[in-house]
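Open question from group meeting: does this chain pack into something compact, or does most of it stay loose? Before anyone orders reagents, we agreed to write out a predicted structure and look at it together. Recording both the input and the output here so the notebook holds the full record.
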Amino acid sequence: MIINDIEMQLVKETYSINEIKVGMSASYSQTITDADVKGFAAISGDKNPVHVDDEYAKASRFKKRIAHGLLSSSFFSALFGTKLPGKGCVYVSQNLSFKKPVYIDDTVTATIVVTAVDTEKKRVFFNTYCTVNNKKVIDGTAEIYIPSKDS
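Structure tokens returned:
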């Protein structure tokens, strides 16, 4: 297996602002379960029946229950906090465009890609997207702040 420099760098747990380069990326995949959707509904308070009620969802335009869009997009936060940049980083902003529904039993792959680094302000900018079966279901951008170790 050939690993390029950018992929090789992602073996670290946390990156300083000076180690992050445009093009670096990380991904995370998870299959959405009934328990995930119900748990997210309980935590978020979003008990919209299109997410939690089979009968209601059958009559919807989706024909079956769909996962909350913010459930899938929450995988970006997991990537930022555990892979790139890693521990200690903080969200500044995230924008999202929901392209297609995610259904229970779909496997969602969330990907983040560095598009710019502002070392002076300690900000990293990302393209963010989720796919199911190689089709984009969520598209967006994010800005992350990386505090210095002495902050």
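Observations to bring back to the group:
The helical segments are 5-9, 34-44, 49-52, 54-58, 69-82.
Residues 69-82 form the longest helix (14 residues).
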